[in-house]
Amino acid sequence: MQASRRRRTAMSNTLYCGPVQKAEAYCLPRFQTLESHLSYINGSLGGNHSFQTYRDRYCMLEASSATGSCAVYHSPSTASFSSNGSTTCNQESQPYLSDIRQSPETTNYGSPISGSCITDDATDFMHKLKQLETVMLGPDADFQESYDNSLASSIASSEIDSWRQMMLAVPRRDLKQVLIACAKAVSDGELVTAQVLISELRQMVSVSGEPIQRLGAYILEGLVARLGASGSSICKSLRCKEPASFELLSYMHVLYEICPYFKFGYMSANGAIAEAMKDENRVHIIDFQIAQGSQWVPMIQAFAARPGGPPHIRITGIDDSTSAYARGGGLDIVGQRLSKLAKTFKVPFEFHPAAMSGSDVQLKNLGIQPGEALAVNFAFTLHHMPDESVSTENHRDRLLRMVKNLNPKVVTLVEQESNTNTAAFFPRFLETLDYYSAMFESIDMTLPRGHKERINVEQHCLARDVVNIIACEGIERVERHELLGKWKSRFRMAGFNPYPLSSLVNATIKTLLESYSDKYRLEERDGALYLGWMNRDLVASCAWK
């Protein structure tokens, strides 16, 4: 999958109350509605099960909130793989749903892994597992030194350290620490340790439990996917069918209403544009990911009320043609909707569609006309553009230089405040765990855990990004966030200067937050606005000229 074919990230789509716009979905477990409770169904993993097995199982489990049905699927083939990465196919049909657990309170993963699907030497694995079990059961302190010496004779010292970390976390049922230990084992290539931890994690995560349990369920799928394949095969294996467009629309609308992150981002961007264009008669707005176009509804209404009359507005909407699925049609739907609104409010309006990925945009696609004041909107989209670490073309910086040459009056940037672009796997994992822990905790404050749509909201709006960050590398990893400090460096290198934010908009956003939890915080520093949950910054917004 190419980044150019990615649809909009969950966060950007959320403001538009539209579906996740991604050209190809990352497969995550589907959840069934069984007697008003959503249960995760997972089969036990035997010695010959592989990532092919995982993939088929997860891609075949479809959400069925309308019917409440549950089906057992079989695959025509499975494959086993060894520690050296080789694979062998086993052409036989095997059932994947062997353990169904239902509870009014939580929905857990199924049975633990039996045997090893990663090591060629089953005897050696069972020996190590026996040693591990002995330690976890708590051997006498008098024999600890002799035990460590025995263990060291058969296992590498780095693996011993990982196992010691695991031994401290697992008995305490410290899910966060077990997730970290598992990610460290994956990062270090300690496959036996990783599999033991994966088996344990399947008993600890829950898609309807505490925030860390719910996030842990999706993180676990990312770790399994990363172990099972490498490079492009990971994301290809994770593709699965999107839910219906109207269902995604509903999920995004729910998330948009319960979290202020997306309203914050678009309100701050619109405020900067309105301020810059307050005296202009002809305004051209270029939106590098227009999706449903809903961001511009309040903008058109605001211009209609401007003293002296509204300006002539032209909007260039950029969007990958594959996003037609999300809208139920092409960009003409967005144009018709905005044109009808503008006509109602008597605002002169034109819409210019540019059906392509943002990274493919060239100057000729923008329809620049003389005499127009130009505003460019980069809201939750630049992090999808490959940079110098992915492609020699470096579209991330190329687009900024191209836009600067257009001499815009204002350029708005809204991005998630996270560092997952060039970080190595393990620090990237830690950053993802920390960031999305705050996100899931904030959802927990507003949306009850028993809410029938909550699993769908988290799965389709957030979880796919989590899996992509953890499981994928290279061009396949399209969720590449950077901290605002890095974005500032890129804008300055392109020749931009900071544009001051509107104090009126800041006050409006503060009023907005009063209707949410008091754990949200808004902070203005160094010419930018930050919205966070408790002590974690989650979204940053700024403007440039």
UniProtKB/TrEMBL annotation:
Keywords of this entry: Transcription, Transcription regulation
Start and end residues of each stretch annotated as SAW: 471-545
Keyword Calcium attributed: no
Coiled coil regions in record: none
Region annotation Leucine repeat II (LRII): where it falls in the sequence: 333-365
InterPro entries: TF_GRAS
Placement of sequence motif VHIID: 283-287
Region (Leucine repeat I (LRI)): 173-233
A family per Pfam: GRAS
Region (VHIID): 252-317
Family: Belongs to the GRAS family.
The protein, known as: Scarecrow-like transcription factor PAT1
Phylogenetic classification of the source organism: Eukaryota, Viridiplantae, Streptophyta, Embryophyta, Tracheophyta
